[in-house]
Amino acid sequence: MMNTETVDVVIIGGGIQGCATAWNLAKQGISCVVLEKDHVARHASGVNAGGVRRLGRHLAEVPLSQRASEIWPQLDELLDADTGFKASRQIKVAENEADMAMLSKRVEDVRAMGFNHETLIGQQALRSLLPAVSPHCVGGILVEGDGSAIPYKTTTAFARAAQRKGARILEGHPVTAISSNGNGWEVNTPQQTFKCQALVNCAGAWGDKIASMVGDHTLLTPTALMLMITQRMPRFMEGVVGAANRPLSFKQFHNGTVLIGGGCQGFADRDNNQAQVDMHGLARYAKNACAIFPLMDQARIVRSWAGLEGVTPDKIPVLGPGAKPGVFHAFGFSAHGYQLGPVIGETLAALVQNNPLPFSIEPFRYNRF
Amino acid sequence: MFHDISHASRQPCVSLLLDGKSIAVPAGYTVAAALLTQHRRHNRTSPVSGAPRGPFCLMGGCFECLVEIDGVSNRQACMVEVREGMNVCTQQGAGELTTDPETLSYEV
Amino acid sequence: MKYDLVIIGAGPAGMSAAVEACNLGLSCLLLDEQPRGGGQIYRNVGRQTPKGKELLGPEYQAGLPLLKAFELSNCKHVAGASVWQISAQGEVFYSVAGTSNAVTAEKVLITTGAQERPMPIPGWTLPGVMTAGGAQILLKSPGLAADEAVFAGCGPLLYLVVWQYLKAGVKVKAVLDTTPRSNYLKAAKEWRAALAGRSYLKKGIKLLRDIKSAGIPIYKEVNRIAAIADEARSLGTVSFCTPKAELQIETQHLFLHQGIIPQVNLAMASGCEHHWSTQQLCWTPKVDDWGQSSQQRILISGDGLSIGGAVAASLRGKLAALQVGYENGKLSVQQRDTRGQPIRRLLAKELAFRPFIDTLYRPAEQFRKPVENEVVVCRCEEILLKDIKSAVENGCMGPNQLKSFTRCGMGPCQGRQCGNTVTELMADLSGNPVEETGYYRLRAPVKPLNLSELASLYDEH
């Protein structure tokens, strides 16, 4: 007979969303267990670009992102760990007047919502912030006080902190079945069964599969998002840089290596935990990187990789309650969930306890498609 | 010190610059062989600690023999044959970036 | 252009496969990163000096007819080609002189051969410390030898190079033999294998006799070695211990060797499954009798399968070509099997000696898994043993987590010089079997690649 255990909350998925939720619940004395089919931070949460940005978010996400940005600088202290967080500016570069017009409109829209973190800058300001930028770039959007962190470290920090507060994190525990038993949920793994009042679905690229198990049908495409990293180079830039009109996310670490990403897709095979890079996509990153920073011609790529992530049709997450009582979803972060981790943990903990939220999550309903 | 034991006639020689000094090296030598016969023990300093590093595996698998050749950093000396007029420099740490990429040549 | 077969690596396996494939009428391309064919073992065999031919011996010279046959075949040979990736769709990406290329292959044969097993001793990153394989490469091309060198480690190649130095008139200062005493007794149990390879055995014994007669000091059962810096922060002294003594030798050249292991990077990055060989203490690909890997498009041959030597590699290359010929419809299954039979017989003979050699020269634990905390395990990123121990104490369970914690394995060599060590160390420290501990999750590009080269791929498409 299978060993059965009862907890208040079962969280499915040991990425940053799941671990941040576990920490938020555990420090409020709510018992929870995280069921992770591989190991903590194995997928998107361990291999993303580490960008901690409010810049460029879908307007629906802006209030959440703003709240997350208040938590990030305190995380090392809150979690008693090294998340690798460093405040740094983020810049989205405009290459021509059309780009500038687009960015200008964006800044207006964000300010109209009451948020002032994004500033439009001209060519001179851009050049003084990024001396190595290509001469054809005409300006951009600047956000001071954004930053970057080390995804593996941050996710592990949340997990450890949650464990210290009494949460249990079980690796190698895939969820095989979920059923409702009138007074909550029963969740099965090959090793044991868990009974809980609330179920939180943070299953990332597998989020729709878990959602189906509780009868919530939604749309998610598993994708393999690619990144590549160079050998060490002399320091030539500060902050994280993107481009207005090409897939590009670009940052140089303190040790001199440069990380290049931007949302180009490789080949995803989530059933086999496989994410393969597509060289042609990487070639596109390479071209974009060299276009924005000509000296990147001399960079040498040492490694590329792809992380499995779930993408929704409108590229904003599924966040909020499911149809049945005691089910809450947070997945489909479409390649920009990392910065939101701290606020998602807060939000899910609040939802589980039926506490009010300071912002609307209406745009993120699971059944909006 | 490494010396030539082949008793073979080593003509022609090519002349190249090694850290600014002009040297003559038999054609067919790799840059690594040139460094070793010039009694140069290290070709770079580590970007992590600054420690001097020299060639190690001689077959392209260790990335210790990195030098700057004709302005391009991180060239493996054991994989590049010497050429007339080549400009070889010890690589300091992560190397240098030229701000004029048009001047770079990857000629082998 | 689509090829029936793309071969990567121009050593004996690759060249033999190319010749056989072309004879079968397959369209064939061979990519190799060196300027000329021959791989490591037959390096420069096409242009060797008379003195070189003399000291490198008949076994090396045996590569010449193979090289000539390869050059005369219809196989297109691209030299100086650095392969970055083989995609699941059969695209092979590579660059030559800073320009990128992509070709499509029906089948790909990986014959990238072997590399030196890492031998992480204290001070092994000092300038002046190299591999014995590296010393032999310099002998082969352009014909260089180091004065007053110390050779240290175990394995047939170590003594071979010392002997070749002797023939070249260059005296070696000392040989530090790290073969553990217990290996001799265990190897004696493999007498059948020794008998099967008696011609190799005889050659080996003669080598050792010549070295001894030349008065080169040979220290046996060396159980500890350290390379010590001089004022120029390069190698100045080698200190070592035998059961009887602690000694020091001044030298500027230390050549290390403790056997060779398959180069796994391209095969692993392409998704080919591997397993840990307890006989050879290395990762070897899972293949069938013909070299077919777990990836449908990819076969693997030569020393990249398991260490067997040049003759075995050549035979294995032929078998792989026969299989590709059969899959391509050039041969029936009976024809493939009939042609394969005599090759297999010869291959079995070649490999029969291995159990003896692998047992006799099984490297000692402390030279595979260093014990001194200050030893550099990851040369590129200068990660020390104590850093690895600290990561394990913080919950790090395997090589990939170690990468995330410490940057170990993230440098330009892409784990080639530390991977084997890290696998065995992590297995020990975490208390898990090696097979379960695994290896670095390797990815493209398989050799570092210039961004401009990569970008040029986008232009073409």
Short description:
The complex is a heterotrimer of chains A (369), B (108) and C (461). Chain A is an alpha/beta fold and 369 residues long.
Which key features would you list for this structure?
heterotrimer; A: 369 residues; alpha/beta; eight-stranded mixed beta sheet; six-stranded mixed beta sheet; 10 helices; C: 461 residues; seven-stranded mixed beta sheet; five-stranded parallel beta sheet; 18 helices; globular
Describe the model.
The complex is a heterotrimer of chains A (369), B (108) and C (461). In chain A, strand 2, helix 1 (16-26) and strand 3 (32-36) form a beta-alpha-beta unit. Chain A has 369 residues and is of the alpha/beta class. Chain A is 27% helix and 27% strand. With 108 residues, chain B is mainly beta. In chain B, a hairpin with a 2-residue loop joins strand 6 and strand 7. The model of chain B has no long low-confidence stretch (mean pLDDT 91). With 461 residues, chain C is α/β, with parallel strands linked by helices. The longest helix of chain C has 20 residues, at 333-352. Chains B and C meet through strand 1, helix 1 and strand 5 of B and helix 2, strand 8, helix 4 and strand 9 of C. Strand 21 of chain A pairs antiparallel with strand 23 of chain C, so a sheet runs across the interface.
Arithmetic mean of pLDDT of chain A: 94
The major pleated sheet of chain A works out as: 8 strands, mixed
Separate helix tally of chain B: 1
Proportion of beta-strand residues of chain A? 25-35%
Q: Distance between the terminal alpha carbons of chain B, to the nearest Å?
A: 27 Å
CA radius of gyration of chain A: 21 Å
Order of helices and strands of chain B: EEEHEEEEE
Mean pLDDT of chain B: 91
Which regions of chain A have little confidence, pLDDT < 50, spanning 5+ residues? none
Structural class of chain B: mainly beta
Portion of residues within helices of chain B: under 10%
C-alpha geometry of chain B: globular
Largest interface: B-C, 42 and 57 residues
Number of strands of chain A: 23
The strand count of chain B comes to: 8
